[in-house]
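The aim of this short unit is practical: by the end, you should be able to scan a pair of folded records and say something sensible about each. We start with the first protein, listed as its amino acid sequence and then its structure tokens.
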Amino acid sequence: MNVLNRKLLRDIRGSKGLLLTITLIIAVGTGCFVGMLATYDNLETALVSYYARCRMADFWVDLKKAPETEVERLAEIPGISEVRTRISFPVVADLPGVDRPVSGLAVSLPTVHRAVINDIVLESGSYFTAGGREEVIVSKKFAEARGLRPGSDIHLVLNGQKKKLRVMGIAISSEHVYLAAPGSMMSEPGDYGVFYLDREFAEDVFGFHGACNNAVGILTPRSKSSGADGMVFEEVNRRLGPYGVFAVTPRRRQFSNLTLRAEMGGLKTTATALPLIFLSVAALVLNVLMTRLAEHQRVVVGTLKALGYGNRSLFGHFLKFGLVVGVGGGLAGCILGQAIADLMIGLYRTFFEFPDLTSRFYPCLISAALLISVTFAVLGTLRGVKRVVELSPAEAMHESMPEKGGRVFLERWGEFWKRLGFWWQIVLRTLLRNRMRTAIGVIAALLGSSLVLLAFGLSDSMTHMVDFQFEKVLLSDYNLTFKDPLDFGAVYEARALPGVNRVEPVFSFSGTFINGNRKKKGAITGLISGATLNIPRSADGTVVRVPPTGLLMSARLAEQLGVAAGEKVTFIPVRGTRRPRSLPVVSTVESMIGLSVYADYGYLNRLAGETASVTELQIKGLRNQEDQKDFFRQLKKLPRLQSLTVIAEVKEVLRRQMTGSMQAMTTIMILFAGVIFFGSILNGSLIAIAERRREIATFRVLGYRPSEIGGMFIRENLMMNMLGAILGLPFGYWMLKGLSRQYTNDIFMMPAVVSPSAWGWTVVLALVFVLVSHHFVQRAINRLRWQDALAMKE
């Protein structure tokens, strides 16, 4: 081993504590990078494989009723390679021991098992028997939640008829990686299921012999790559228009795929932002350390140069410090990242359903992570050593000139300066004379506090979204949805149900909104005048009145359509006469969930050519348990009921799944922020102690206690870090807004909300991090051998 390498080992041992804290910061940053991107790659790999295995559709067509032969001719359209017809209807399951009716979706499968578009993967049991009737294959999560297995019996209400079906198999499908009831954001396995029926049996039950009401198709590779699918879907609409096309949905807007892609998009964004924060802090802190180390070894560098070592050799020698830290932090981060990926994949298995979702090892990702960590470490090393290495041997042999003393600008204000006191004067002089080091400490605290505020903000935003929707907008206890519009008599029937206090009808009118060349599928929700169970509100909670004529449109939908308040939008309904209507957008409103469009109930009925039609009932009822049981018992007898939504249960599921996972993430992010604070403070303070040994020893000779000297350092750290923490608050809010935009989609809008307490707790936690870090700084001061520091050099 040559001289420089032996020197390197001694220097590393002498600075092992400082290097360890920087290595830890790099490890956390690299771990976030590896863990989140590995999770993204795991999801992407599982998704691509699953979609290929099930032959996932590129588009869905929902119809009223059409001849099967006419729908199959869609395969003749240029750009479509294959089409499969299906029968699909909402159903209600009557489960033993369950008071309320449980919603689900019945989907037909071929009588003989073969590979089809949107195929299923049998997890247990078998396919339908030859010529078998009254058999069903049940989605896996629903079956597990309700204790169903092959051989069990289940009662389904199919087209108003209660049928006892034998469960033949338990299956999953790529069409329902994320399964939730229509209109719901969150998946609750036992409350919504998919029931696959034999095609011939489905035709008999629903009266669809030779007909279908749903089709799925695959586009040609050329059509997908050229982006010409819009023209293909236009032709589908044109050909099937006479049969009542409700919607043509491309894969990118299909609920399950959209939800999963939104989650993956947010994951990818976070995998870029978080590591950048940690690695930037590590580079800044390492820069301080290497500057101090190089300056401390000026004479050694001069001696080595005099002995014949060139600039290149010495520069490479000091760069090895950065390489050691980068490689060490990178390797530790890769191990941490793999553990993070394993934990996240375990979490995602509870939300998404894959046949094979495992945590894999990605050599290319590991290599990229190591390269990035080493790059940041080397960047942090460069500035610190460049200045010393470039000195001439004669100049380097001398100690560096003392920094200029003199007054700092605050001393110009005499009265103010005199009032500060001795210790504060020393602190301010030190901070202002070491501007670069002070700036790095402030920046590190800024990034740490912004991370804490981001963590609190994510949790607050989710909580606000749930509370806003279910405490200010949707105030009903139960929502009943029907598969076909009913007359106003349904309102009187509902009022007679046990425990019902108030019933408000809702009329939903589906169609396509068009403005120029922009189009969007959606629905207009008709609310009665003075509605109290569904109240549109602006983002600040102010009630927004539904206009007597015209539309009240979600601001996000208005933005997508490029329409402003006071302008008109074309609406083409999917039911009845498909004549385009030009409707005024009277005003817009922020909508947390969905792309809502509201209209007056009577106005919308007239627009649809109806008289007091009802598609949904919103009910306010008593919370008495007996009344609730009677209420549910009566609902099971309603043949045209499509789904029942118990608002309290939906709210609880949302709160448990969304805010629960966010609280776990908040804890982890706060711990990571603590790593930034500890690493920055300990490095800065320990380096300052090493540089100011004579100053500390002088104070000891003058009779000052170690605790008083420690008070000087804690004042410095408090000033730097609390300033950084306060400056980090707006930066953290800016990060929250950026991340909320990434997670916002057609299903929900995540607001950027930070509660007043979160601002305060961010500053409090920054203070706690400083105080805890000072404990270790004080120990270093207590252990300092100040007598040695006063010894004169010969």
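Turning to the second protein, read its sequence before its tokens, just as you did above.
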Amino acid sequence: MLFNSYVFILFFSPVVICVYFFLNKLKWYRAAIFFLFFISLFFYGYWNPIYLPLILISILINYFIGASFNHLFAINWLNRKFLLLVGIIFNVALLAYFKYSNFFMSNLNYFLNNNFQLLKIILPLGISFFTFTQIAFLIDAYQGRVKEYNLINYGLFVTFFPHLLAGPIIHHTEMMPQFSDTANKAINYKNLVIGLMVFSIGLFKKSCIADTLAEWVNNDYMRYEYLSTFEAWFLSFCYTFQLYFDFSGYTDMAIGCSLMLNIKLPENFNSPYQALNIQDFWRRWHMTLSRWLRDYIYIPLGGNRAGEIAIHCNLIVTFLIGGFWHGAGWTYVIWGLLHGMAISIHRLWKKMNIQLPKIIAWMITFLFVNFAWIFFRAESLSQAFTILNKMFQPIKVELPSSIKELSYTDIIPDLMMSYKEFFLLFSFFMFICFTTKNSIALKSAYTGTLRWNVFISVTLVLGILSLTRVTTFIYFQF
């Protein structure tokens, strides 16, 4: 089920809110938790129930391994470590089979000149996210940070529908106390309205902006070999903003849905295109993934405790894993490698203590992120390098290919309109990213005045009216 669908907005979400708080009002607290768990499974299986057994088996195995670390299950240190290893291997193997088996087989076919038959596998929705969530749970349980063990509660922690399919990536200790907090069991009208506001902002980002940009991006990627220099730059910027408004829109909707149920998910975006360096970018973009990679990859590798060379290796390996987590393809590996190298270079730059003017620092960061996104979107390395080559080929006095067939009298007006559209759109999106308050700031600034309520109503109505172009979210493929 999609957040940006009539069935979710007009039926699913209102029913869930009403039933959940009604059960809590009757003080049927366990029934309310079970209802949320059940409805989250329904949400997950709405499109394809075939993978419901998969996520349930994954939940059971991870829960019982995690519970084994509890003091009630007294086991020695060696067995605890062995169990942790088994749990991590199980989760990685599950992810590897469904997401990476065909990637490895196709590469074996290429390098060894074999002809292994590829598997007919449909990637289960959200598998990357619920796998990382459960690995974090196992490590936290092993380290004694998990204090409460209940199978239904754990099932809800993994499947809670606002975050299940594309994050944010959550921790057991930051979520489950909220479900047991008595104050959260009664409807909170302020949370309800603020949650609706954040959801509406996300819906507007997705349906009005990201889906509009998607039409241009998909169109130009299909004819990438014929792009002019101008069109290649236009395409790269369009995808940069499409991805931002698509994923941040999803995250806003997830956080908004959850807040309406009095549950606060961790923030995931904080105006990342305002970053003045690549490290700052990753503190703002997909913040929960950055946190996960830091806590469970970078620090265990040695983090900043090792020598300088080892630190740079740790940074690059961490981002390589982060890139490969996003998708089974060399384009994602290159994307992760680029960001790892950029973080490493930034560390060296900081040691030199050189300060750039803010506008120059921002421009370098934004353009690097924009170039790297080309590998993130491209279907092959060949396609990515072709587009980059188009962007940096010697500038020719040539028209965008879409208007080459026009008569001489039509050329100048249409060419000017193309450039006008480019600069107007770029300016509009930069205006939103740089001058308007993000959802984090808007939540804090909400006062409940008429102006705020009009703003919520307008964004919600505009978002709903644009649902004729419903598309899935980009991060669903990961």
